[in-house]
Write a structure and sequence with these properties.
The chain has 125 residues and is an all-alpha fold. Helix content is 68%, strand content 0%.
């Protein structure tokens, strides 16, 4: 954060409970998705045939699984960080400017770390 004290969040206790439930469900789903993708990769590697076409298809499938695992892992990390912010009382506060994140944004994307203005500034033109 930029050193400014965080401002009061527009979120109430019910909002925090709802966000925590969404994040917990997302955490569990992502962990299961990652585990399933890793199991699928292991099965593909075990069943890899010697035929060049099969090896190529298997390699492509494994690359796609890695992409899915990477994407899910990144979202899982953001989800776990959001759950930590709920516990430490900083959930709903922009990690960059300290301003409250709009309730609608946080409830739609509970893993959001920044307000819309800071997200747009970070993304650039």
């Amino acid at each position: 954060m930029n050193g400014l004290p965080p401002r009061e969040s527009p979120l109430g206790p019910h909002d925090l409970e709802e966000a925590a439930a969404k994040l917990s469900d997302q955490r569990d789903r992502l962990r299961a998705e990652i585990a399933t993708a890793r199991e699928t990769e292991s099965a593909l590697r075990r069943d890899c045939a010697l035929d060049a076409a099969d090896v190529g298809a298997t390699t492509l499938a494994i690359e796609e699984l890695h992409t899915r695992i990477d994407t899910a892992t990144t979202l899982l990390e953001r989800t776990l960080a959001a759950l930590t912010r709920i516990q430490d009382g900083t959930f709903g506060t922009c990690a960059t400017c300290g301003a409250p994140i709009a309730r609608e944004r946080v409830m739609a994307m509970p893993h959001a770390e920044r307000c819309v203005a800071c997200t747009e500034r970070q993304s650039g033109p």
